[in-house]
Design goal:
697 residues; mainly alpha; Amino acid/polyamine transporter I; Rossmann fold; 5-stranded parallel sheet; 3-stranded antiparallel sheet; 25 helices; elongated
Length: 697
Amino acid sequence: MGGRCPFRTLTILCVSKLTDVPKRILIGRALRSDRLGETLLPKRIALPVFASDPLSSVAYAPGEVLLVLSIAGVSAYHFSPWIAVAVVVLMFTVVASYRQNVHAYPSGGGDYEVANTNLGPKAGLTVASALLVDYVLTVAVSISSGVENLGSAIHFVVENKVMCAIGIIVLLTLMNLRGVRESGKLFAIPTYVFVAGVFIMIAWGAYRGIVMGDTMHAPTSDFEIKPEHQGLAGFALVFLLLRAFSSGCAALTGVEAISNGVPAFRKPKSKNAATTLALMGGLAVTMFCGIIGLAMATDVKMAENPAKDLLHNGVAVGSEYVQDPVISQVAAAVFGDGTFFFVLLAAATALVLFLAANTAYNGFPLLGSILAQDRYLPRQLHTRGDRLAFSNGIVLLAGAAILLVWIYDADSTRLIQLYIVGVFVSFTLSQIGMVRHWNRHLRTERDPAARRRMIRSRAINTFGAFFTGLVLVVVLATKFTHGAWVALLGMVIFYGTMSAIRKHYDRVSEEIAADEGPSDDSVRPSRVHSIVLVSKVHKPTLRALAFAKLTRSDRLEALSVSVDPAETKALKDEWERRGINVPLKIIDSPYREITRPIIDYVKGLRRESPRDAISIYIPEYVVGHWYEHFLHNQSALRLKGRLLFTPGVMVTSVPYQLQSSELAKERAKKRQEWNAPGAVRRGPVDRVRPKEPNGKR
């Protein structure tokens, strides 16, 4: 559990006090655990919360298609409708597949749970690594794209886009720390305004073009594109079209977030999640196709290197030219540049791109909590914060996204090359897992109606696995050298880190597991009393109880704080099963705090008997590596910091040396640098030289 330095614990205590007031101002008052049900989302709020990413992707996915096609010049633009059709087919396939997922696995594990259950832990960890990378990229890409859209109207934003992007990430982080439901209400309005604005633009553009016969021109309609490769044909053209298709597949990012967020829906959870999925798919497909169609009708021009490749009257536009996104150019052609609807749609687009990151803010912390529960990530990610949100996961996501934005200068074109690799890895493995899921159930199911439903679902998932697997191959082939290798490297790093954490936790769990029979940690003479803090029945707990019995106190009790009813019940059952002859007291903690309930309980005992001394025994791990301190003993360190300043209370740490500490000790001995306990306080001492034959040293 950490260090033994009073100054360190005093520092932690003071910092905690100083930060409590601004924390309450920024994120609000703490919520009780029994109010978790009040944070559940209706479909009208769940749609902008979980689907803002795929809905907002229509603001940049069409532009990415045109950017790639521009390599072959304007003549390649006529392929864009066919690419849009392929993206639409893929979208419907993925949505239909995930509707099977949310019914079969409503617990919130999503792709990770499906792969882990049906394909094994390695496949599950691969999916988890892919999703974690994709969530970080979702925040970075969405915020960077939003800053670029906003920068087309406000030059200050373009000139300081990295700092603006980081500032927006910090703001979104604070909003999400206030809770899912509260942030969802804030995000709903701009999302619905954006959707309504795009539909109005598509309808008005179609009316002007078809009914009124108007000719609409985008601001770049009279530009020319200087092709990088003139007259592409054969394999080169096919490769270009596949690359354009893979860029357009950015419209599918975030679809899996709903399957991960099923527990956040109101009952019936699976049905509401499936309905939201279908609604999201229909809206995204319509908007994507509409913008592609209007871009073709208004003659939008886009280029990967606009300064050199965009020509106006035969002259390159130069580095001063700012290339506006496709949706902005289409809005200018349909509504008129600077009109009310143009400004409204531009503002809503920028806002919804910023808020699209909220999909990741809901998916990453929830997945991190599940992985922490499975011991693949630090346990701190499993606990909910004051506002019943997974605060540690939210902060971790924000930090990773800020780092990525800073490294890539908030350039969405560079960042998007890293995108969608992870999501298609999870798509493919999840659908393969669902096929195995239905095969397993079909072997035991005898009801004809149920079998027909399962066979239909299996067919959908089989087609989904084939199609998404094919797209994954295309994405890897076309984007690997353009930056996709960075995403793959990130997945490998996540996979290796999580595997190492799981091995560590497994090793520690095996090492501290309580033996069934008597052992040196549990069999001690029994004449002691005090308070022994207990979380689980394992060797450190038994050692602390045995030591406390030897101190000859007047009373001995074990104390545990209940933050999870299931874990508390398991503790009571194990306590009774072992017949431990020490009374176990459980303190309920509705706000999931550990430190405050214990402090309040101890102060209550002091008030009842002011002249009594209270001795607290805290089981504590002794670790041998610096990084292990982040995985253990954090709660005990905070608790000791409070107890040390409580009058009449004595705190005793009962250390349990893990094997890593013994290895560290041996390493230090080999270097002849090991000091006995207390050596640091005594100060440096010269080494004692062996006696010489004459007795002198």
